[in-house]
C-alpha cells in the first residue's frame, strides 16, 4: 500500500492567512527552519493509479497540482476514486466542493458525519446539483465503536474504523457532547505485506480502544495539533484549549509523546494535523529536538511511504 501525505497542517494551514504568530511570521520570511504545510489529508493506493483520499481539505487544488499521481490520465478524470472522511470538520471536508466537476463521487463516512454534512454544513444536498456524492456508510453509530469494511478499488486492503473521543464541529448539534461516529480512526492492513497503518488525526483521548489499534500498527499517524493544551491562549491567538477542540497535546504527562514512547520500539511514529502555533514546526525549537531525540517524525506535504 502506498501512502501519500497531501497536507500535514491542522485547520488554517501553515501559515494561516490571518495569523502572525512567531511560526507564521517566520515561515513567511522563508526561514530555513520552517516549512509551509497545507491542511490535513492523506491518499492511499495499492496500484499507484487509483487513490482513496482520506479527507478533502480546502487546499485540495494545490495538493492535486503538487502530486502527479493524482493527475488525470485521460481527457477528463482523476487518480481519486473515492473520499473517506474521518469527521465533518471544515479542514477535512471543504475540498469536496472543489471536486464537484468529478461528481458523482463515492464518499465513505459515518451516519453522524453524513448528518452534519446534510444539515449544519450541507455539502451532500448542495453537491446533488452537480451529480451528487454517493454516501458509502461506515457503520460506527450508537454503541458500535468498531466497523470493518473494504473499498472496491483497494484490493487486499482491510479497513477498520474505530471511534475516537474528540469533538463534533461547531455546526453540529453534538458539539461539546460528541457521540460514536463523530470522529474516527482508521486501522488499515495490507493483506499482501501484512503491514498496517493506524491513522488518527483527531485523537483527543487515549481510550483503550484507540490504544489497542495504535499498539497493533506498524506505522501510526496521529494527532500532532498542539504542543501544549493551552498553547493558543498563551500565544494570544485563541481561546480554546486542545481538550475543548478534541485534541490531545503532545507535551507533558499523559500527552501524545508519552503515549507514542510506550508503543513497541519497532513502530514508526508520525505526527500529522499540526497547528501553525505548534513549536515543532520550528526545526530549531526545543520541542522539535525533543521529538527528534524520541524518533517521532513530523509529517510534511509530499511525504510518501510504502507499507
Ligand atoms: C479541529 O481539528 O479541531 C478543527 O478542524 C478546527 C478548525 O475548525 O480549524
Ligand atoms: Mn482539524
Ligand atoms: Zn500562526
Summarize the structure.
May be involved in the transport of PQQ or its precursor to the periplasm. The protein is of the alpha/beta class and 307 residues long. Helix content is 21%, strand content 22%.
CATH class annotation: Alpha Beta
Kindly report the CATH topology: Metallo-beta-lactamase, Chain A
How many DSSP H or I helices?
Answer: 11
Dominant shape: globular
By oligomeric state, this entry counts as single chain
The run of helices and strands is EHEEHEHHEHHEEEEEHEHHHEHEE
Strand content: 15-25%
User: Strand sequence of the main sheet, in spatial order?
Assistant: 6-5-4-3-2-1-14
Largest sheet: 7 strands, mixed
What hetero molecules are bound to the protein chains? D-malate, manganese (II) ion, zinc ion
Q: How much helical structure, as a percent, in the residues?
A: 10-25%
Kindly name the structural category. Answer: alpha/beta
CATH architecture: 4-Layer Sandwich
Low-pLDDT runs:
none
Radius of gyration from the CA trace? 18 Å
Please report the distance between the alpha carbons of the first and last residues: 5 Å
The strand count comes to 14
Number of domains: 1
Mean pLDDT: 98
Describe this structure in words.
It comes from Vreelandella nigrificans. InterPro entries: Metallo-B-lactamas, PQQ_synth_PqqB, RibonucZ/Hydroxyglut_hydro. Pathway: Cofactor biosynthesis; pyrroloquinoline quinone biosynthesis. This protein has one domain: 4-Layer Sandwich (Metallo-beta-lactamase, Chain A). α2 links the parallel β3 (51-54) and β4 (80-84). It contains eleven helices and 14 strands. Helices cover 21% and strands 22% of the residues. By secondary structure, the chain is an alpha/beta fold. It has a seven-stranded mixed β-sheet. Strands 7-8-9-10-11-12-13 form a seven-stranded mixed β-sheet. The radius of gyration is 18 Å and the shape is globular. The model has no long low-confidence stretch (mean pLDDT 98). The longest helix is centred in the C-terminal third of the chain and has 9 residues, at 208-216.
Amino acid at each position: 500500500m502506498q501512502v501519500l501525505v497531501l497536507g500535514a497542517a491542522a485547520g488554517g494551514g501553515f501559515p494561516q492567512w490571518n495569523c502572525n504568530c512567531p511560526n507564521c511570521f517566520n515561515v513567511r520570511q522563508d526561514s530555513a527552519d520552517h516549512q509551509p504545510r497545507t491542511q490535513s489529508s492523506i491518499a492511499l493506493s495499492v496500484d499507484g493509479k487509483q487513490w482513496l483520499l482520506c479527507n478533502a481539505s480546502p487546499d485540495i487544488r494545490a495538493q492535486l497540482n503538487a502530486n502527479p499521481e493524482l493527475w488525470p490520465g485521460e481527457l477528463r478524470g482523476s487518480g481519486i476514486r473515492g473520499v473517506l472522511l474521518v469527521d465533518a470538520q471544515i479542514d477535512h471536508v471543504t475540498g469536496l466542493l472543489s471536486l464537484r466537476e468529478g461528481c458523482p463521487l463515492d464518499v465513505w463516512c459515518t451516519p453522524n458525519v453524513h448528518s452534519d454534512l446534510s444539515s449544519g454544513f450541507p455539502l451532500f444536498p448542495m453537491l446533488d446539483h452537480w451529480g451528487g456524492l454517493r454516501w458509502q456508510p461506515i457503520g460506527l453509530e450508537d454503541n458500535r465503536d468498531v466497523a470493518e469494511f473494504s473499498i472496491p478499488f483497494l484490493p487486499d486492503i482491510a479497513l477498520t474504523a474505530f471511534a475516537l473521543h474528540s469533538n463534533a464541529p461547531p455546526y453540529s448539534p453534538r458539539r461539546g457532547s460528541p457521540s460514536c461516529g463523530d470522529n474516527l480512526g482508521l486501522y488499515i492492513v495490507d493483506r499482501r505485506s501484512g503491514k498496517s497503518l493506524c491513522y488518527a488525526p483527531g485523537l483527543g483521548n487515549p481510550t483503550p480502544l484507540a490504544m489497542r489499534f495504535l499498539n497493533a500498527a506498524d506505522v501510526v499517524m496521529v494527532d500532532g495539533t498542539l504542543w501544549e493544551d493551552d498553547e493558543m491562549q498563551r500565544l494570544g491567538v485563541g481561546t480554546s484549549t486542545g481538550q475543548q477542540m478534541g485534541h490531545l497535546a503532545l507535551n507533558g504527562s499523559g500527552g501524545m509523546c508519552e503515549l507514542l514512547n510506550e508503543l513497541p520500539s519497532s513502530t514508526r511514529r508520525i505526527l500529522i494535523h499540526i497547528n501553525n502555533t505548534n513549536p515543532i514546526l520550528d526545526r530549531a525549537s526545543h520541542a522539535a529536538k525533543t521529538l527528534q531525540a524520541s524518533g517521532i517524525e513530523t509529517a510534511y506535504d509530499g511525504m510518501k511511504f510504502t507499507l
